[in-house]
Amino acid sequence: MWNGKKDLLSMDQLSREEIEAILHYAGRLESLSGKGSKLGICKGEILITAFFEPSTRTRISFETAMHTLGGDVQNFSESGSSMEKGETKEDTIRTLEQYCDTLVIRDGEPGSVARYASMVNIPVINGGDGVNEHPTQALYDMYTMWKSFGRLTNLKIAIIGGLKYYRPSNSLVTGLGKFEGNSIIGICPKGLELSDKFRNSSYSEMPIDMAKLNETLEKIKPDVVYVTRLKKEYMPSGEDPGKYFYKIDASTMRILPGHCIVLHPLPRTSEMSTEIDPDPRVVMFKQVRHSLQVRMAVLALFSGHEDGLKQI
Ligand code: NCD
Predict the structure, then answer these.
(1) Does ligand 1 have an atom closer than 6 angstroms to the CB of 59?
(2) Which of 68, 92, 102, 106 is catalytic?
């Protein structure tokens, strides 16, 4: 229980103060712990990660975070489990509950992780539920902005891509909308606009012909460019993803302000050229590194160890 909350399911459930607390504790953990140092905050506890969709960063960083907090980790894999005999996800989750203290779950169905959380008595963290949300991704995206600018207010953030199918941007728009003075501009191909559910008063949108991406960014002069992947796997079969093509490359970097940072939740595919990686404004692997401290803070808080965090 953290501030009366058992689970972390969406950014909407967190107040601005709670987001600031998570980022504050992440900052303490970063300055103190380094990559492998062991803290005893979650000693004796077991985390199970249950991912019904592919993952690299989310699963591994949650598992590394729990190890670094002194706890233990088990990873559930659908392949080789009794789900191959026809067992439901619901019965699987209720079984896993018997073996651990905290669950991180990813599932392709929007709203499913909240449903699983309502069936169990232990904390459940949403590691991504279909086209709905990915709250801990947004938290470390915001942490990266906070580290770069020293604030999460009065920023101009351009979010680029197929927003309709991208859960990190849903969570990010919600999170940034809780801080005053932000201008969040969604730049997307026509037809892939942000879902109405996630719009707020800080958000405006420019559905464009993506061939005009550079000239659009030149006019906006953003502080942050947040590039997203086209989630082809969520698009209706028969729809040609090629018609939505967009790309950030060296020509884009030339028109962005000197202070502008470029983020990407990764994985990247064709939407971001590797030629821009040496540019110090491109900070996506720092962003990846931040997932560790932020997920450590989330695990410690939601498993009831704020006191342990206060002592570091
Ligand atoms: C994202 C996801 O799964 O929503 N990945 C991640 O956790 N960093 C983005 C994606 O799938 O492209």
Answers:
(1) no
(2) 106
Ligand 1 near 61 CB (within 6 A)? no
Annotation says 106 is catalytic? yes
Per-residue HEC secondary structure of the chain comes to CECCECCECCHHHCCHHHHHHHHHHHHHHHHHHCCCCCCCCCCCCEEEEEECCCCCHHHHHHHHHHHHCCCEEEEECCCCCHHHHCCCHHHHHHHHHCCCCEEEEEECCCCHHHHHHHHCCCCEEEEEECCCCCHHHHHHHHHHHHHHHCCCCCCEEEEECCHHHCHHHHHHHHHHCCCCCCEEEEEEECCCCCCHHHCCCCEEEEEECHHHHHHHHHHHCCCEEEECCCCHHHCCCCCCHHHHCCCECHHHHHHCCCCCEEECCCCCCCCECHHHCCCCCECHHHHHHHHHHHHHHHHHHHCCCHHHHHCC
Query: Mean pLDDT across the stretch 136-164?
Result: 98
User: How high is the pLDDT of residue 211?
Assistant: 96
pLDDT at position 157 over 70: yes
Domains of the chain as residue ranges with CATH: 11-134+291-310 (3.40.50.1370), 135-288 (3.40.50.1370)
Task: Output the pLDDT for position 130.
Answer: 98
Is the CB–ligand 1 distance for residue 267 below 6 Å? yes
* Residue-level pLDDT at 154: 98
* Atom of ligand 1 at shortest range from CA of 231: 12
CA of 311 to the centre of ligand 1 (A): 33
Ligand 1 atom showing the smallest separation from residue 134 Cα? 4
What is the pTM (predicted TM-score) of this model? Answer: 0.97
**Top mutation candidate among 62, 109, 126, 134 for ligand 1, by most atoms within 8 Å of CB:** 134
